[in-house]
Amino acid sequence: MSEKTQPTPLAGLKVIEFTHMVMGPAVGAILASLGAEVVRVEPIGGDRTRNLVGSGSGYFPMFNRHKQSISLNLKDPDGLDVARKLVAGADILVENYRPGAMDRLGLGYEELSKDNDRLIYCSEKGFLPGPYENRTALDEVAQMMGGLAYMTGPPGQPLRAGSSVIDIAGGMFGVIAILAAVEERHRTSHGQKVQSSLFETTVYLIGQHMAQKAVTGQAADPMPARISAWAIYDVFQTQDEPIFIGVVTDALWEKFCTLFELDELWTDESIRENNKRVAARGRIMPQIRELISNYKRDDLIAKLEGTGLPFAPIARPEDMFDDPHLSASGGLEDVTMVNGETVRLPALPIEMNGQRLSEAAELQDIGAQTDSLLVELQYSAEEIQAMKDKAAVS
After folding, report:
1. Cα-Cα-Cα-Cα dihedral of 313, 319, 321, 323, to 10°?
2. At what angle do helices 381-393 and 77-88 cross, to 10 degrees?
3. Hey, what domains does the chain have and what are their CATH numbers?
């Protein structure tokens, strides 16, 4: 694996990961991009996430860069012994198996912390402890249960978001909990178990709509049917491609009217203030839509660029591969796939000390570091070969 030369604030922290799909691997992916050493425990034959098709085909390369791989049979005493030894020397464990699965293997927090009191044990689950905790949850289940799908689709047509947003956000909350536990460990010298979940993450994300009901007494409408907080905050059709434009302050309204020579609108005192413009949206919007329809998209972008007015072309995921800002700013990093092909994928979206945390990465083959990690754990060549032989016939 290549040496990281970008900022590595978590260098020195060792993470052992028992995960699959997106939520758990996202935790390890973030920690690895921040410089932690992440060892991923895969079953013999590899994590099935590697071979998903369709919308799942990008899960493994996106969330398993910068990690090592060890392949173990956790149903075999020898494999379990290796796993326990790995964790005994680790700072952090991440898992997102079904509730109770790690405990049944003897890899629960209570058991492992006996040998490693400093261990920070992160469980990524569908639900935090409570009446639902033993239910099986997925990203989409949580979006439906937590109100996000209701808010995303038109009335009566709940629609999941166009990304595994809850898996990823739940992973981010897991990282936040881990880093808080690391900081607390500096003071106490003790680790702890932390959890994040899909359902509670979803509810946190729709909390603004709950607060809207609490403040106004009116339940929030789904986003496609909402009354916007701003009169001009929408997608507009140009002569060729659509574009989003937002006018979110009174100062930007003046700027917008000046830019497009809308003297009649600017001199209308009845709509100088934002909330009055919202009330008059039915009168204002047809005029604005007609105005925008006379432009080609690129010409409109050129006119808006540098004005401070919020705008956005409507892009597709594949457009990001060639986005000039991402290309120039280190927003994409080269990832060498197991087959040797190199692709560019999003780097961690933060900057530290003036540098992006992007670095070329290799996606490791199943168990690529098994031998070297077993040697580090002081297994002999004979013991390693015996484990390989056993795995080959199991």
Report:
1. -20
2. 130
3. 14-205+330-393 (3.40.50.10540), 228-316 (3.30.1540.10)
Rounded Cα gap, residues 137 and 106, in angstroms: 23
Q: β-strand 14-18 against 361-362: which pairing, if any? A: unpaired
What are 245-294's pLDDT values in tens digits? 999 999 999 999 999 999 999 999 999 999 999 999 999 999 999 999 99
Query: Which tokens is 103 given?
Result: 């405990």
Task: Please tell me the distance from the alpha carbon of residue 306 to that of residue 303, in angstroms, as a whole number.
Answer: 8
H-only helix segments in the chain: 23-33, 59-63, 77-88, 101-104, 109-112, 139-146, 148-152, 165-188, 198-205, 207-216, 250-259, 263-266, 274-279, 281-292, 297-304, 324-329, 370-376, 381-393
User: What does pTM read for this prediction?
Assistant: 0.94
On the 0-12 / 13-18 / 19+ scale of CB atoms within 10 A, 133 is middle
Q: What single letter denotes the amino acid at residue 380?
A: S
CA distances from 297 to 66, 300, 301, 305 (A): 39, 5, 6, 12
Of 304, 319, 197, 187, the residue nearest 256 (C-alpha)? 304
